[in-house]
Structures are given as structure tokens and as C-alpha cells.
Design a protein that fits this description.
alpha/beta, six-stranded parallel β-sheet, about 35% helix
């Protein structure tokens, strides 16, 4: 019997492959095995016959560990276990002792496991990079960051029409968060929505560091960020783009900063009939963007705070 016939699910702690390498490993493994990927507390787990338990026991909270012990007591399974680490925790030792077989992610884990069970072997983790597309050359590029939220679908669809109408090859680069300390929440949902709008030429860059965002802003043709209603004075991602001289595509309304002006220092997607191609026009927008940002710098903010209150 093959391993895919023997196992009936991969059971994991974290389910978000954008946040956890172990979760990403389990997503890929379950797909390769052709079995479901289930969370620890999915109601279906206790009815499994031979699940592969694959998670880091050390990452469970005390409450989660207690709840999962209850699951194991109710279940009538014969589980196998993939260990990504070994921390010698009581629950960990019990799972190792009860497992039909233990797959040890490296030799050090195997050495510890040998003291608990003889049913084990050392395996490995293959690479998790599955999207190996080369960035195709493009005359126009669009970069978006600060997107860990529900995207403004209608405006990105309008952007797609404008890009298509340009007649130039283009690429869209998306980062899930606005700087290195930001959360990746909803990143997968955001990317799926963007992929529906841009089925080709879309590249997801994950959670970029500040220096990576800076270099993307330097190299991109346009920076795109759209908001419910319109851009606001405290939308820092747009502020960052303006500071770096990016040509910003956004949406304006009556509550947007009055100094944000269409085709002077940025582009209002709702008023844009075609994307500018002329290098002179793009350079002018970039220069005026930097000038606008200077009036809204940290120094100017501190100065303003000093005159108020």
C-alpha cells in the first residue's frame, strides 16, 4: 500500500501558509498525497483512521495542548507523525510513543526520538518555492504594498482596463504588507482576488522589508493604492510613495488632502482616461510628488505639533 493510500489526512496546527513554513509544508504535502489538510480541532479529525500529524507541539498553547490531548483520547486512529522539531515535551513524547511511525525532519530529531520509539526514520523538507516564474520584461510596471486588507476590486479592474488599453506589456507586483513589522493577515485572500483581476503578469512578493519596498518604489512605473471613498492624509503608504517620487495611482474624494491634485502630483484613477507614457510627463509627476511630500514630512509634522495644543 502506498503512503497516499495509507494516510487519510494531514493534520496541522497553523493553516495559513503565508504565515508559517510548517503550514506551507503541510499544504504542499497534503496536495501531493491527495488527502485533506485539516486543523487540529476540525470535527473530522477524531474520525480519521491513519492521519499524519504534522506540526510543532511547542507552538501549542497550554489550552490547545489540553484540547488536543482530549481529541487523541476520543479518537480510535493509528496516527503517523512528522516531527519538525523535538522539544521533549510530555505531549510530544506521548505522541511519539503512540505513533505507528515517526518521520524525523532531521538527524538531531531522530537521535532524540530513538530514546522513545524504534519506529522512526530520518527524512527532510524539500524546498517550498513552487512559483518559479521568471519576471517577464515589461514596459509598464505597477507596484502595490500595504494590501493586507480587502482590496478595492472595481478600481483594480479599471486599472486593468487602462493597462490593457496602453498596448504595452505590463507586470503587477503585490506586497502583502506595508513594512517589515506588519501582519500578513488576509494575504492569501488578497492575492486570490488580485489573481482574478490579473490572471497573467501578476507577481506576489510577500511581506517585504522597508529597503525592499524602497527599491520597488524606485523601479516601478506606477505605484497603485486604492481606498474606500478616497485616499486620506494619514494613508502612510501613499505618503511613502510620494516621498520616493513614485507616480501614484489612487482615488480622490472631497476628504482627500487638497494638495493631492490629478495629473499634477499623482493620478486619480476615476479621472484617468489613459495612462501617461511620455517620460517627461512621468518625470514631472515624480518631481511634484517629492515636492508635495516635503510639505508633509516628519519635520513639518513635528513643527506643526509644536504650534498646536
Amino acid at each position: 500500500m502506498s503512503v497516499s493510500e495509507r494516510l487519510d489526512a494531514v493534520v496541522t496546527h497553523h493553516l495559513d501558509g503565508f504565515r508559517s513554513g510548517v503550514a506551507r509544508f503541510n499544504e504542499i504535502l497534503a496536495g501531493r498525497l491527495g488527502v485533506p489538510l485539516l486543523g487540529l480541532f476540525d470535527d473530522r479529525v477524531q474520525n480519521l483512521t491513519t492521519p499524519l500529524l504534522s506540526f510543532k507541539i511547542s507552538e501549542l498553547s497550554a489550552d490547545e495542548a489540553e484540547r488536543f490531548e482530549q481529541v487523541t483520547q476520543r479518537a480510535s486512529w493509528q496516527p503517523e507523525l512528522y516531527l519538525h522539531e523535538f522539544s521533549d515535551l510530555p505531549l510530544e513524547r506521548r505522541l511519539v510513543a503512540a505513533a505507528e511511525f515517526v518521520y524525523c525532519g532531521n538527524a538531531l530529531i531522530a537521535e532524540h526520538v530513538a530514546a522513545v520509539t524504534s519506529s522512526y526514520d530520518t527524512v527532510w523538507s524539500p524546498g517550498l518555492l513552487l512559483d518559479d516564474r521568471i519576471f517577464e520584461p515589461a514596459e509598464l510596471s505597477v507596484f502595490s504594498f500595504g494590501m493586507a486588507h480587502k482590496i478595492q476590486t472595481s478600481m483594480y479592474r479599471r486599472l486593468r482596463k487602462l493597462l490593457d488599453a496602453s498596448g504595452s506589456p505590463y507586470a503587477v507586483y503585490v506586497s502583502a504588507a506595508n513594512h517589515e513589522t506588519a501582519s500578513l493577515r488576509d494575504a492569501e485572500v488578497v492575492f486570490q482576488e488580485m489573481h482574478e483581476i490579473f490572471p497573467t503578469g501578476l507577481y506576489f512578493l510577500g511581506n517585504l522589508s522597508d529597503v525592499a519596498v524602497f527599491n520597488q518604489l524606485r523601479d516601478t512605473t506606477f505605484y497603485a493604492a486604492f481606498f474606500d471613498g478616497g485616499v486620506r492624509a494619514n494613508n502612510s503608504s501613499v505618503g511613502s510613495a510620494l516621498e520616493r517620487g513614485a507616480v501614484v495611482l489612487t482615488n480622490l474624494d472631497q476628504w482627500s488632502p487638497p494638495e493631492y491634485k490629478h495629473m499634477e502630483n499623482l493620478i486619480d484613477i476615476n479621472r484617468c482616461e489613459s495612462l501617461p507614457h511620455d517620460p517627461a510627463v512621468l518625470e514631472r509627476l515624480s518631481m511634484h510628488a517629492v515636492e508635495t511630500a516635503r510639505s508633509r514630512s516628519w519635520e513639518k509634522l513635528v513643527e506643526r505639533l509644536g504650534t498646536l495644543g
